[in-house]
Each structure stands twice: as C-alpha cells, then as structure tokens.
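At this stage, I put together one protein's amino acid sequence and its backbone structure tokens, which the following lines show:
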Amino acid sequence: MRTLRFLLIGLALAALSPVSAQEKPSVRPEVGKPIQAAVELLKTRRGKEALAKAREAQAVGGKSAYETLIVDQVIGQAAAAAGEASTAARAFEAAAGNSAAPESQRRQFLAAAAGQYYVAKDYGRAADVAGRYSREGGGDRAVRSIHAQALYLSNNFAAAAKVLAADIEAEERAGKAPTEEQLQLLANAYQQQRESAGYVRTLEKLVAHYPKKDYWLSLLHGIVTRPGYSERLAVDVARLKLATGTLRTATEYVEAAQLSLQDGFPMEASQIIELGYGAGLLGTGAEAERHKRLKDMAAKNLAEDKKALAQDEAQSGNAKDGKTLFNEGYNYVLHGNFNKGLAMMEKGLKLDTGFRRPEHAKLQLAHAYHLAGQKQKAIQIYRTVQGNDGAASIARLWIVRLSRNGSAA
C-alpha cells in the first residue's frame, strides 16, 4: 500500500481561512497565538513541541465550533508528527464531526483519521472510519486500501473480500489492472474463509496480470488435489507446467517424458527430456544414468516413429477408429506437419469412436492448435471443455495464459 500523505501543513493553514463568504469566524488570541506557534513548529518538524502548544489552545474554555475545529486539526497533525497516532486519529475524527468543518474537508479529516488509526493498529476503528469516508463520497484509492486491509487485520475476512472484490471489479470495468497487493489480499481473505471458488478465481486474475511461478504452482496444485481429479490428466498438467515454466524437479521432467512415451508420442517426450537437460536437472547426480537410459529410449522410439510416418503416411488417414486417427494426427502435429495433423484430429474427434473422455481429447486438440501457432482457435476449443475432473480447470488456465500473450480479446 502506497504511503498516505494526509498530514500536510497546508491542511491546517487552509482551515484557518474563513469557512464561507457569508460567515467569517474569528479566532480569539488566546486560541490563535498558541495554534499559530504550533503551525510554525510543524513547519520545522518539531512535532512534540507543536503538540504541547496546540494543547495550550485546547485548554482554553468556551471555544466556538470553529476554534475547536482549528485546535483538533492542528493537534491531529502535531500528534501524527510526534508519533502519537491514537491521539492524532481521535483529533482528526473529531474535526470530521465538527459542524464548522466544510464538507470537502470532512472527508480529508476522515481519511487522515483512518490512516492514523491504522498506524496505531486499531484496525477495527480504522475500518469503521474508512468505511464512513467511502459512504460519504470519498474516492481516494489509498483509503479504500486502508479499509480493506483494516477489515482483514481485524479478522473480518468476509467484509474485506466484499470491499476488495468490488474495488477490483470497478477497476477492471474501467480498463485498469488491479494491483498485485489487492489481488493477494483478496486471495488471502477467501482462503481464510475456506472459500475455494473465490480463491481460485482470484489466483486466475493474479496469473493473468502478474504471471509469477508461485501463483501458477498454487493453481496447478489446487487442480491435482481437488476431489474428483482424474490422474489421466497428468500429461495435460505437465504440458501446462512446461508452458508456464513450473516443472521444477528432475522427477517431474522424467514423469512428464514417461507419460508422453506411454501415450505414443516420443517426439514430445524427447523435447521434454532436452528441456530437462537444458535446465540442468537431468543428466546429473545419482540418477544421471537413469536419465540417460530414458533419453536413449525416447531417441530410439522417435527414430522408429519417424520411419513409420515416412512409410505409412499415405495410409495414416485410414485408422480403425476415431481415437487412433486422433492420436496419429497429434503425432503429425508434434512432427511439424500441422495441417495434416490437425485435419486428422478434427476428423477423429467427429467420428466419436474410441473416446472414453472426449473432454480430455478437446484439451489435446486445443494444445495441438496452440503448437501450430493458432492461438485463437486453441482458445475457442478450450472454452468448450467441461467436466468436474480437472479438464475444465486446465482449459481455463490455458485461456488465461494464451489471452495474456495477446492472442485473444
């Protein structure tokens, strides 16, 4: 949260001016002299001495509403400068409630009071005053931030989430990106309430605007640990991890490569292994020999795969069922023959034979279009993916990633 600069000397000087042309309140010397001395001391940042002078004015009896306003205002500034946040907050709040305070200044006083209550760690009171500021028409983003943070720190997580969600929605409607701090706080507020749907939505906004690996890992972890998740999606999770740079260990690279080999895609497996070697995670340590065996196996399978494709290309469209045709098409895509491969995949999916999990096939088809550089088409297909086994969640994250890359509206 950015630094709040509510406590300006100019605020005190402005309040010494007449409230309106019709009413010209005066300040008696016994009030005005110590107040003016306090203002001069504030100019040289002598907060404690300024507060002592202001308290001399506070002790004068029979003050008018206007004199009281001036005294509270200067006490607020002096106390803030002296590090007495609670005193400053009470003084600013009193000034906000003074009948002599102009409407425009009341909101400034409320903002200052909220900030000082926050500094004093009186979060409940800070939230109350900041909420009043907003209800009275105040629009300073920093005060809204104080409101949300104070609600959160006073353990009112539901109210904090409501305020933050409204602010974020308003900013997005205006075409502005919410700050990372706003989104982090909202995610935490949802998490404290165990409100998983809101938490996931907010993490998706975080990776859309601030695509850090930690946020991606949290989202992907949420998918694979959610009840109902299908282990058959492991290869799809691995593909998304590769795309977001969140494969972190040698074991993850090995498992991803093995999954691709098991599915009959040695080209993809070889690419994963090469990335693992490039990252310095494979080919080193106690498992180096195992990694080499996997690499050699993938290379052997890839050589055989290329030979089979070259010999059997003319018959590749005559597969027995849609699933076989679909997988052969994906293999062509992996080998760079995008047009042929995508056409085979589309045809295979339309045959609708051999597919036990058509939503998983849509994920693979969308990924193939992504590999072919047709991101808009990929997003279009990802938007059709449904189900409660994790497929729809993976598709939604791909949409977030591809949209951020400027490929979608």
In short: The two ends are 30 Å apart (CA to CA). Residues 288-312 form the longest helix (25 residues). The chain is about 70% helix and 0% strand. Residues 1-23 have pLDDT under 50 and may be disordered.
